Structures are given as structure tokens and as C-alpha cells.
Amino acid sequence: MKKLLLLCCVLAIALSPLAAIKTGKSIFYADSYMLRAHGVEAAYWNPANIDMGTYEEIWLPGVNTGIYVNNNALDLDTYNYIMGKERLDDADKELILGKLDGSLRASFSGNSSIIGYAVKKISVSSSLTYVGKMALSEQYLDLMLYGNTDKEYIFDKHATDIAALSFTDFTLGMGGYPVPYLPENFPPIRFGFSASLLAGVGDVHLDEYNGIIRRSLDSGLYLYQDVDLHTALGGVGFKGMLGFASNPLPNLEVGLTLDNIFGGIYWSMLRENQKLNFEADSIYIANIDEDFYTQTNETVDIPAYTTTLPMELRMAALWTSQYVNLSTDYTQGFKNSLLTSKVGKLSFGAQFIPVSFLPVSFGIELGNSKNPWRTSYGISLRSVTGELGIALQSYDSIVPGYKSKGIAFGSFIRIWF
């Protein structure tokens, strides 16, 4: 039993948006980054700030990367506790189950730069994005801990799920243009937009899932599992972003973006539906060696389909001074998906500049019903021709360690001339 629990811990920690396309440097501020992004990155966060002025910027392959791994319940302390016990008593079992909220949920996501270039008010770039999630019903863990009691277990897609999506974008951004015809007493507002052609790499999602495990003295053990899994390789798509930014006060900037406009990926190449059905009735120890179950596996081609990328609204503010700058971002998705959430997220970021060439960053995102809270720490090295840095992020813990329910890593290199 402990080996099965260990497997669940490993899956939860190893597999663990979600937001729309993230970039490596956003991890430095727990994604409070909408108004901090300029040049190439602004095309993914707020194209109103693409304007490079008299500089040009290059985005190198692979070095601008962010990788996120998290889960909702388990940490290394839990693993050490489980493995340190010779036998789990009822109090231990209730402690483990009490950490779950209906299911054990884990997610992973990441973005890696491919190439990018920004000059004046125009940016062109490409990156790879990948995201996935897993959910395992709390009832499975209850069954593993207490064995097959007379209780009936009913499983569905609400508490047990799996999905993954990956795609490459080819993005054109234009920004830094003034909004015309504003009232005279109105602060100037600049706007920008970006358009991304998407090349779908792969899509996996559980379309249907149903299961029953039941036991009684009269009828024995009954098992039923029905799985309907969709997979696809190769697709094309599009998404757009519209952004606005303004400086109503000398040290204050505010902004707003609407992302995933007309967002979606059309899967038209390799598409399959894998159906698995397993059923066993009236199982007793006496007939365990007989053909006591029926199982069917079927793989069929399915018509082309579209993965919708729901729109997402982000609002942000950034206050700057010589030695410190502070930001806050609020993100609100209009529908739940792998990249968006209807549950809003609020994050805060800070950068301290004790010396001009060594900025230090900190960020925190408040938790919600879908994701644990997280904190970020980063350090950068800056010169007149560029900047590089690394950052770490911890989920549900002040610093990465045994209490963390996930980690994230970010790196970036910016070169301008």
C-alpha cells in the first residue's frame, strides 16, 4: 500500500495555466509581469509596450524559459512521513485524505523561446508552449488506504481527468501607438496588438470517464471502467491580443490586455479516439482464475476538431522609483481550460536595485480554489548591452523545500543594441 501511495506522491510532484503563454522572466515576479515586459516579451504580455525606442532586441533560442510543476495536496514532508511509518493507522489515513479536496490534482506548464527580434514598434518571435494536468479522485486513495470495503465507489470525469496540449507560436506584434481623439484633460494612452499563428504539436484529453467499484457478500465484487481518450498530432490555429497602457502619474503606469482573441487550434492531421471498457461481475476468490471479466479496446479515427483558447482579461499597475518598483496584476479568464481559469488570480511583484547592475526580484501570487499560493525569488545581472537572470518559485511555501507543493524555474537573456 505504501508503494502505491509513493507512486501518487511522485506523480503529483513530478507532473505538477494556468495562464496564457508565459515567458521565462515572468517567474521572477510570480507572473505580475504585464507592464514589466518590453520588446519581444511585450507581444505576449502587453503589445502596447513593444516600443524599443532607439534600441533593437534579440531573443535567443532556449535561454528564455519558464517551467512550472505543482499539485494541490502533497509535498516532500508527506512523502517522508508515509515512508517513515511501518504501518499507517486510521489517523494517518485521515490525515492524507484530509489534504485532498475531492481529488489529487497536478499540473505542469512551460514556455521556451525559439527566436525573437524587436525594433522600434515591431516585434517578431516564436516560442514553444506546453501545458498539462492530471486529477485522481480522492475515492481511489480511499480505496487504496482502506481496501475494498462494502462501500460503493463511483468515479467520473469531474474528479478524475488527464489532459495535455503543446503548440508553437509565430507572433507578430506592433505597439506603442497613441490612442487618438482623447479628451484634452485625459492622460495619453498607447495601444498595441499581437497576432500569433499557432502550429499545434499535440493534444490529449479525456473525453469521457466512468467507473464503479462495489462489493457485497451476496453478489461479490463488481468492477466497471469506461475510458474515452482523444489524441491528435498536428494542427493549425490563431490567437490575438489587444493591449493598452498609460502613465496617469509620473511614476505610475496602468494597463489592460485582452488575450486569446479568436483563439483556437484546429486539429486536422492524426486524430484518434481510444476507447477502453473493462467489466467484471460477481467476483469471488473461488473463480479468480477463470475468465471473470470482459475487456474491449478500440481505436478509431475521428473527424477534425478545434481546441478553443478562451479569452482572458488582465489588468495591472506598476509604480517605479530609482531603487525599487512595485507591481500588481489581476487575471480573469472567461472559461475554464488548460490555459485559462474562471477563478481570478491576483499577484504582486517587486524589484529592488541596490546597485544598478544587480537587480533582485520578489513575487507572490495569492492562492485560490484551483491553485496554491506561490512565491518567487530572482536575481539578474545587467549591463549596457543586455541582461540575464535566473529565478525559483515555490508553491504553498515561502521558500522551495520540503513544504513546497511544487516548484518553478525561470531563466532569461536579453540582448539589445
Helix tally equals 5
State the total count of DSSP E strands: 18
Mean pLDDT: 86
What radius of gyration results from the CA coordinates? 25 Å
Overall shape: it is globular
Query: What order do the helices and strands follow?
Result: HHEEHHEEHEEEEEEEEEEEEEE
Low-confidence stretches: 1-20
**SS-based class:** mainly beta
Task: Tell me the fraction of residues in β-strands, as a range.
Answer: over 45%
State the helicity in percent bands. 10-25%
Spatial separation of the terminal alpha carbons: 60 Å
Query: Biggest β-sheet, characterized?
Result: 18 strands, antiparallel
Walk me through this protein's architecture.
There is one protein chain. Helix content is 11%, strand content 56%. It has 417 residues and is mainly beta. The protein has an 18-stranded antiparallel sheet that branches. α1 runs antiparallel to α3. The radius of gyration is 25 Å and the shape is globular. Mean pLDDT is 86; it is low at 1-20.
Summarize the structure.
38% of the residues are buried. This protein has helices spanning 2-15, 42-45, 76-83, 90-98, 138-146; strands at residues 56-59, 65-71, 103-119, 122-137, 153-156, 161-178, 189-216, 220-249, 252-283, 293-301, 305-308, 312-320, 324-333, 345-352, 360-365, 374-383, 386-395, 406-416. The chain has five helices and 18 strands.
